[in-house]
Design brief:
The protein is α+β, with helices and mostly antiparallel strands. The chain has 3 helices and 8 strands.
Length: 206
């Protein structure tokens, strides 16, 4: 054995011990040579097929129970028997629908205007001069006229309503336009124009 083996030790080896070691090594080698080789079975490897497992289909819906149609039962109603002994109540006639009425809000009426009539001023010479032609004939009569009174109280227009003689109307119209004076009519205190009817009589003095 070379240096560094297990026999290379600082131990004194006897020849008998060395013989025993050599005999043991020889017996081990002989046993290995005479032993039957161990049978190792041959494994036959087969290729593996790989496939995709499909998803499981959803379960089928539960069966719908069949409903057997039932035959319609006809109920026979017997009309009520009305005897002639008792009165038969008449059914209440349908009432018309109630339509709500619209009431407009109350609006107070405007107050009526305050009107005052034109009045002749005292001291005014009303009577016109007697027409000379009618005076000589001793004809008496009258003249009824409508006069338009302005806001200043003066007569602005004269219209004949009736007269026994035209001369009576003409004399009255001249007198009214020249001398008649009125307190004008008012509306809510404000002077306004107005019409007034007047009658003048012509009578001869005895």
């Amino acid at each position: 054995m070379h240096a560094g083996g297990f026999l290379d030790r600082n131990v004194t080896t006897s020849p008998s011990r060395l013989g025993i070691v050599i005999a043991l090594h020889g017996a081990a080698l002989a046993a290995l040579m005479l032993a039957k080789p161990e049978y190792v079975p041959k494994i036959d490897w087969k290729p593996i097929d790989i496939y995709t497992v499909p998803d499981e289909p959803p379960p089928p819906p539960p069966p719908v129970p069949e409903v057997t149609p039932q035959p319609r039962q006809t109920v026979e109603t017997t009309p009520p028997i009305v005897t002639a002994m008792g009165p038969v109540e008449n059914p209440i006639p349908p009432q018309p629908p109630v339509v709500p009425t619209y009431t407009p809000p109350y609006t107070p009426a405007a107050p009526a205007p305050v009107l005052t009539e034109a009045t002749m001023i005292r001291g005014v010479e009303v009577q016109p001069q007697y027409p000379m032609s009618l005076a000589r004939q001793e004809i008496e009569g009258f003249a009824t006229v409508r006069v338009l009174i302005g806001t200043d109280g003066r007569v602005k227009d004269v219209q004949m309503v009736s007269a026994t003689e035209p001369e009576f109307f003409e004399a009255t119209a001249r007198q009214a336009k020249r001398y008649w004076k009125f307190k004008p009519a008012t509306r809510d205190g404000v002077a306004v124009e107005s019409w007034r009817q007047m009658t003048v009589r012509f009578k001869l003095e005895a």
